[in-house]
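Final report, Chapter 2: Outcomes

The project's central promise was a pipeline that accepts a single protein chain and returns its three-dimensional structure in a standardized token representation, suitable for archiving and comparison. That pipeline is now operational. To close this chapter, we reproduce one record exactly as it appears in the project archive, with the input sequence first and the structure output second.
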Amino acid sequence: MKEMTETILALSNNVGVLYVEDNLVLSKNVETLLLRVFKSVHIAHDGEDGYNQFLTHHPKIVITDINMPVLNGFEMVKKIKETESNCKIIILSAFDEKEHLYTAIDLGVFSYQHKPANAPKLINALYDAVLSIHKEENSRIFLTQLQNIFNYQNNIVIMMHRDKFVLVNQRFNEFFGVENIAEFNDKNNIGKLLFEHKEFLYTTPSSTWINTAIENQGKLYHTKMKNHKGEMRHLILKLRNIPEKEDYYILSFDDVTELNLMSLFDANATRDDESSKDKMTILTLLQVVKDNSAEIKIHNFYKGLTIVNPAVITDVNDENFTLKTVNTQLKIVQIAKFMTITSEIFPKDVICKSVKSLDSDNQIIVIDDMAFAPRSAADRKFIRLEPDADHGCTLYFKNIKFPGESSVVDISEVSAKIKTDALPAGIEIGTQIKVAISLKLKGRLITLSTLGSVYRIEENKRDYNIVLLYELVQKSLNDIKEYLSNRQIELIREFKSIDVNSQIPNNYSI
């Protein structure tokens, strides 16, 4: 009992008690008990006086008799409950009739006890009442703060039931220029809310945008919406289900219009777009990825062997971003010193030109040099691999052998990048060159001899790289396919055996 009284004292600073009893002796005894555990105690001797004192002092606990002059206890309780439904009512009565118990239950009485009051039982009831009030107040504070967060965050946030909006935040009302969801529903068709834009989410003949988002929960979508000013805005959408609430979802829209990204989704208009160099644009998009707890993918190559792994963004600031990934990717990044990352919300792949730091123990990488890539890591239609060192390569121009040494940097079914010491005069884009490449396949020598067209020329300090495009005859095509298949297996084994501390150079580029 001592522990209970101490708890009541600690939690009842703002909890007043009203005791209503017409028997003056009983009233005095209970008042003495109440003053030991409550700082604010009010006494009344009939129901009408009790109700008036309740209106004046607003106590959170009322203890009352039933049979009293002027206004009986039940009538007073009914009026109090109409004013403050959460008030805790404790009945003290000499009567034990079932009718009184049923009435007390109907009125939502907190506790029903016999008169004269039993001090331990009354303290126990008061203890339970104070704990209940404290819990309700904490819940009310939490819900108020939650509502404030819901209303005043920058994102548009919506709670949906199936395909209907049922609760929205203040940002939503401001965006659409409405007072509430009812006004929005009167003015708008939800199915037509998102406007058509290349590679964006919108309603199509085969599916509404809502159904598409529900079928792909957690995926980030680019969307285009019109605000109440008639302005087209670019927003990133994400939909999540509400656990244990069937057909209920939370929908969020993050406005990224100021990044001027919408034009980037027109591939023909964006090849030379200046935003490919805009570091802040990339960092802002990465922040959206992080805020939505979405994954990105890291693409890398070991001698042409594609290595793709998921990663999560753990930090983004104005200068760099930090990601966490698997050990396989950490290993190839230490070798290659760069990587490409992709996300469903990126208009283009992002090439990370250098690694600021790498922590193998914590599996994190920090990147501070990045740009939109001119080509996608997924654009490759054919496997290009670096051949083994034991290969041969000879180039001929106008039936004259190139001077110096030549070697294959990488090779595919339709192309080869050749490094050569010298470049004869007259060779330019489109020039026809004869190439002969010898490769070892399962202990036998295969030779690819064909005409190739110069696709690209790269001038280095001491040599040149020439990219040749060709069409192989069927036998040579079958040979190179088999060679590339075997070479992939060799490279997988080689990569697994690498000790990153040896820092084996990887000269492959994308």
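Archive annotation: The longest strand covers residues 444-459.
This record, like all others produced under the grant, will remain available to the consortium after the project formally closes.
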